[in-house]
Amino acid sequence: MKKFTLLMFCFLGCVMSYATVKEVDVKAGTLGTLLTADEVTNLTDLKLTGNLNGTDFKLIRKMCSSSGHLANLDIGDANIVSGGDDYMFGMQTENNVLGIDFFCGCDNLVSIILPKSVQAIEGFLFVSCKKLTHVEFPPVKSVGEALFGNCPALETVDLPKSVTTITINLFYQLPKLKEVSMPGVRIVPDSTFINCVSLEKMTLGAVQQIGAGAFKGNTSLKYIYLPAGLEGVSENAFANCSRLATVVSMAKEPPTCGKNAFGGVENGCIVYVQTGCGESYRDADEWNQLKIVETDLTGIEPRVTADKNEEVERYDLSGRKLAKSTRGVNIVRMKDGSSKKVMVK
């Protein structure tokens, strides 16, 4: 019994020792000398600073794969530099670049903070990272193709406003993806979110064009905000989004729509447009299949974030006090005396 108790104490001590974040400052190529063999195998949380080259990333990849247990990696304050071993299959690191397949096959990776100094993110970065749920991106301008291929656990993605360009298949067939924010992206390519069947919320603050089949088959999508700069919605863009119930379109003139842009969307779906714009939407192809409602959209934002300031009262646009949230535009008065408009789905 005493022997069993001692073994359990040692086991729990080992687990607790790896429950805290290990912090290491690295000189390029030396990470392997700064960790023990036991840490390479058993660390779950690791924060790295300094310079990391191919040799270091080769080890990191091993630690995140089935050979180790590394789940949470913070390299936000580290730099990627050229040199050292191939990080995988003849691929070498470049200064300030997250290269192709950088974390491909890292089965245990759950959360990662990418280096703030990175200037380019190439394709297939997280392919087959089957436990990945969180990525914190640096302020780059674009991200590569099929970044999240076969990432079945991924639920949310927040791209920084600096990202204005994305490529095809970025979010292709991610079954658990629920919410995406890409406030700076100008063009949503064809088939970007096809068959992302759990997608519920979308932030498109700067989009000008939505590609063919971009959201096709997203049967959980209930609400989408379309900014004033949107010019076109391509064919089948929202086809078979059967639960889409609320669209906020800030454009005064209806964006042009390709054939079947809203095919399979229930005609009870409400499209909220600016006061005075309803007639043009009702006369426009594809839009005329939906229910157009004019309202004052001044102050409506792409996504309302959590506010520590408490809500006091809620009103409709006619000034009538509401006992609870009511579908459409609600005016919310806050404890500090401020007010804001909220679109209730």
Features:
single chain, 345 residues, alpha/beta, Leucine-rich repeat, LRR (right-handed beta-alpha superhelix), 22 strands, 24% strand
What report would you give on this structure?
- This protein has 5 helices and 22 strands.
- It is elongated and about 70 Å long.
- It has helices at residues 2-17, 31-34, 37-42, 54-64, 278-282, and strands at 22-26, 45-52, 72-74, 78-80, 97-98, 111-113, 120-121, 134-136, 156-158, 179-181, 187-188, 201-203, 209-210, 223-226, 232-233, 246-249, 256-257, 270-274, 291-295, 311-315, 328-334, 339-344.
- The longest helix is centred in the N-terminal third of the chain and has 16 residues, at 2-17.
- By secondary structure, it is α/β, with parallel strands linked by helices.
- It folds into 3 domains: 18-153, Alpha-Beta Horseshoe (Leucine-rich repeat, LRR (right-handed beta-alpha superhelix)), CATH 3.80.10; 155-303, Leucine-rich repeat, LRR (right-handed beta-alpha superhelix), CATH 3.80.10; 310-345, no CATH class.
- The strands form 6 sheets. Strands 1, 2, 3, 4, 6 and 8 form a 6-stranded parallel sheet that branches. A 4-stranded parallel sheet has the order 11-13-15-17, with no helix packed on it.
- 33% of the residues are buried.
- The model is unreliable at 1-18 and 304-308 (pLDDT under 50).
